[in-house]
Amino acid sequence: MNISQAAKASGVSAKMIRYYEQTGLIPPADRTVSGYRDYSGKDVHMLRFIRRARDLGFSVAEIDGLLGLWCDKSRQNSEVKSIARDHIAARVSNIRNLQEMTGTLKDLVRSCRGDHRPDCPILERLETDQPDEDLTIRPRSGAV
């Protein structure tokens, strides 16, 4: 099948298939006499594996490792489980960081009156030289 058929069958765009081939994630496709890429059912199966791994947030480098384990029938499941656990830990950390950012942004929005005045605590916080760890919001003081 040609690249557009493989893309449709796998759920991976033709552009990404070319990228995966260029980076060595997948082997180069066979070519027809006229030079067009020719994908087999096995190729589509591998592309579906990659798509599902990408859907779970694995990076291309991680997918490369998973593909190696997938193809290695002498592998130990503990290796795969370890990669999945590491991936979970990274996702949990990302979620925690996003929740902290959301909380900070909510605090900033609450501290801004949103009126006609030019003073803006959101912009003031963004321009400060404070370390990023210190994201506390100080209430406005003085004449308001």
TrEMBL record:
Localization (cell): Cytoplasm
One family name in Pfam for this protein: MerR_1
Transmembrane segments: none
GO cellular component, one term: cytoplasm
Keyword annotations: Cytoplasm, DNA-binding, Transcription, Transcription regulation
InterPro entries to which the protein is assigned, alphabetical: CueR, DNA-bd_dom_put_sf, MerR-type_HTH_dom, MerR_fam
A GO MF label: DNA binding
Any Gene Ontology biological process: positive regulation of DNA-templated transcription
Cytoplasm recorded as keyword: yes
Positions of the HTH merR-type domain: 1-69
Name of the molecule in the record: Cu(I)-responsive transcriptional regulator
Species, as recorded: Paracoccus alcaliphilus
Lineage summary: Bacteria, Pseudomonadati, Pseudomonadota, Alphaproteobacteria, Rhodobacterales
